[in-house]
Amino acid sequence: MNNKSTRKPLTAILIIAACFVVGFSAGLLLGNRHKLKDGEHIITVCATTDVHGAYFDAAYTEGEHNESSLSRVSTYIRKLRKEGKNPVLIDVGDALQGDNAAYYYNYVDTTDEHVFASIAKYLKYDALVVGNHDIEAGPAVYNRMLKTFPKSYLAANVYRTEGDDRGACYFQRCRIIKRDGLKIAIIGMTNGNIKNWLSEDKWKGMQFENISSMTQFVVENVHKYYKPDLVILAVHSGMGNDFPAIENEALYTARTTIGVDLVICGHDHKADIKVTATNSGDVTPVLDAGTKAANVAVAELKANVVKHKVTSVTSRQEIVSMADYEPDPKYDRKFSKQYRKVYEFANKAVGAIDGDIDFEEGPKGPSACVNLVQTVQMKASGADISFAAPLTISGKVNKGSIAFKDLAKIYRFENQLFVIRMTGAQIRDYLEFSYDNWVNHSGPAFNFDSADGIIYEVSRSAAKGSRVRIISMCDGTPFDLEKTYNVAMTSYRASGGGYLLRDGAGMDPRKIEIVEKMGDIREMIGDYLREQGTVTPSVPTNWKWVD
Asked: What is the pLDDT of residue 238?
């Protein structure tokens, strides 16, 4: 079994050590009073992650079905339970964003129990980890989840910075459960990079610590106060590599943490299994189920018990594809009422387009979809310049009526519109950074920002830093490198997402001048379509690629 180290906590988190010890002290009541039966104990652990609203088998177009959903997961979990297994079931975060159903229960129906909460109860999840997109849904949403799951909504690396309970963990640190006589601790942590992605109104009153900087401290206190037989660490962080990286640090955390038997991760949408040697010489498996409930990450832990103590733990891991399982008819009947509500909402017409919008054009260059977003952002904000990127890179919306379900394709995320102040030189440098990524296919397409409000051209063959030639403003007036402009962009970008402000424009997102914070961009697109009635999709002519 992994060595249960008593190493002192890391210096970086000493400032919050006292509050954690107070919280963990309650665990003394759950001390190691149980007596284990000698022999081999087999525990099955199953995990989903980055479900992003994939709750239903049926799509929101009559007769169409989704490729994956929690309905198929229900079939698989039901099968395991019929086989006599009682799996430890964990979701590793980002369940509350990405689909019409999540949006509907986040912002439209706020009185009924959230459909994902109902599903989590039905499937008997033992623990739910908070993801960055769950925080993005806003305090009304994640506080509602916390109220529903006060003992199992986990993020041990988030603590309060305001109020009488300042310093206390905002969510729950860990969940203690029992399987086959073994006491199992599930520790959950969210992504430490959240403040660089989301505006302050989403996380006001919270402090986020890097996962790897405080995991050892939390693990040691879990061992000290709860005395578990097994420890599972579930982190909303990508697999990453064998070195620290704030956004994707699961593998690094596994290698540098002693006292953990299994690490479950998510966030990067890449199904994967890795096994790493810890600093003590033990091995720790790390599993990532991918996204959209397409897979379940499964680990079978075999704990050998001698003289009532766990002496060793071995494991077998696999990624189980849900494509091999049919949707669960009992699950579908259970949530048919919720599905019907979302279906009716998703199919409400908001306007029309008299041409197709092809999302595959977005990463290639000027595109109708990004142009629609730019038009809306410029009109709503009155800004001089607007930045936007392709958020969806496959599929299309066909000519004809546009419903809310189509808006969710055109604009995937719940971003707000911000207007900030930038100089002409910062705007140019920002675009140079963006197009360097674009030309070199570096990073995701949602960081490939283009601009409206200015006329410019981009050379693919030019050297880095000299690709963008800004000709003028769109109204024909000169573009001035020394002048300050009002620039519209997403809350994600203004908060530092993609590092275009920091590494491109050389601006500290914490110190930018914000002119205005506006509403949800997807809703603005809907309002624009309602106002216009019918919109003609068109490719922008204010910028182009040149050799």
From this structure: 97
